[in-house]
Amino acid sequence: MAEDTIAFVFPAFISDHRDDPSHGVLGFSKVFQAYLSRAADSVDKELLSFHPESNPMLQDELRNQYISYIYGCSCAGILMKSGVKPAMTAGYSMGIYASLYTAGSISFETGLLFIQKAYEAIRKVLPHGQYGMGGVIGLSEKDIRDIAGQHNLNLMIVNRNSDYSFTVAGNSFHINVFLLKAREEGALHARSLGVTVPYHTNLLSEAAIKLSETVYTAEVRAPEIPIISALSQNLIINAERARMEVVNNIHNPFNWLATQVQMFSSGIRLFTECGPSQALRKNSKFIPGAGKFVNWNTLIRDNVTT
Amino acid sequence: MAKITESTRNEVREIVFAFFAEECEADKSQITDNTNIIKDLDGDSLMFLELIEIFKKKYNLDIELKTIGKYAVKHPVDTIGQLIEMQMLIIEHENRLLELDK
Question: Cβ contacts of residue B77 below 8 Å, gap of 6+?
Fold first, then answer.
């Protein structure tokens, strides 16, 4: 196995357990439970009651982030223990925390702390229930801007997954109107992402300042494994850049398309999604020449048998 | 406007059946025209988009995704059979697809 060409990528939220690659992976449950226990001790005792088969906890935005982070850390940990080392890591949106932990830049508990403090800061500056995010497939960026302009909608494009797949964020009423109009204009898919925070918008600038108080006093080290920024596509090579990434990630748009293309340009040929769903793998099919995705459980099996 | 021959029809059917069998890890022999894409195969819009891209490349089609999306709003696709029929219309009419409703 060509270890130097594998990237671990980390999703933001858990939305779907149907294709969870962890089923049947020896030892995953034990590792996951151990991390869950540490997270319960560190930030939220209720996390101990989480079970993947019955997961009302995933409806809670903050707990969903914790669980997603724990899953990503568990998955990457098992992979590395079995000898699969990434040449690079990247986090999709809030996947940045698991990316930093896996790269050795922060401790597991520091990652939890950042998630917790970011959410607390956001809740202090934005009223609950007035904001949201949406995903649109099948329209171009120009189409999206035209719809927003024609209907005076106050929203922002906060991520480009591919040439015809975008994430928007802003006022929830405007987002809902936009999604309706997007469907009328021919979007093949236009749905709310089911979150109440307009992540990656300048509406969270004040929250980012509050978060920085935690980030700049926590222990953050230079990554041992290169991390690529989903915001700038630059490598995060030292502690200062890692800190900046955590703070800027809250209130700046990212570009997953450019991130994956940049990883490919850097020599990455194989990607694995350290999460229970296959959203990033599915999306990669629309990024021409951007390498191949494999399920992480397959990597473990391959490595064991070779 | 492309002429749809029996050969094209068979080719499209074969591509659609093979695509969903592979993507959804389903037994191809169990997929029929009446198979519901979402309920029976757990399909999604990204698969639909991928299939459109496959046909765009294969038949060198000149059609915007939003044209297909607008058509699909009035003619929703639930089953494999409906999807095949829509693909035939896309191949035949390309960007003039919406004129079928006039």
Answer: B37, B48, B83, B86
Q: Can you say how many angstroms the Cα of residue A266 is from the centroid of all Cα atoms in its chain?
A: 21
**Model confidence, pTM:** 0.91
Looking at the partner chain, which of B42, B44, B65 has a beta carbon nearest the beta carbon of A138?
A: B65
pLDDT of residue A207: 97
ipTM given for this complex:
0.83
- Mapped onto helix, strand or coil, the DSSP state of residue A271 is strand
> Nearest CA of chain B to the CA of A81: how many Å?
30
Query: Which CA distances in Å does A197 have to A93, A194, A292, B10?
Result: 13, 9, 32, 48
Residue in B closest to A181 by C-alpha: B70
- Structure tokens, A33: 């439970």
In this structure, are strands A165-171 and A155-162 parallel, antiparallel, or unpaired?
Answer: antiparallel
By DSSP bridging, strand A292-293 and strand A165-171 are: unpaired
Per-residue buried b or exposed e for A38-76, using 16+ beta carbons within 10 Å of the residue's own CB: bbbebbbeebeebebeeeebbeebbbbbbbbbbbbbbbb
Question: What is the pLDDT, as a whole number, of residue A306?
Answer: 35
Q: How far is A78 from chain B (nearest CA, A)?
A: 26
Collect the ranges in chain A with pLDDT lower than 70: 1-4, 16-18, 54, 301-306
b/e sequence B6-20, b meaning 16+ C-beta within 10 Å: eebeeebbebbbebb
By residue count, chain A amounts to: 306
Task: Compute the distance between CA of residue A85 and CA of residue A4 in angstroms, rounded to an integer.
Answer: 8
The class (CATH top level) of B6-101 is mainly alpha
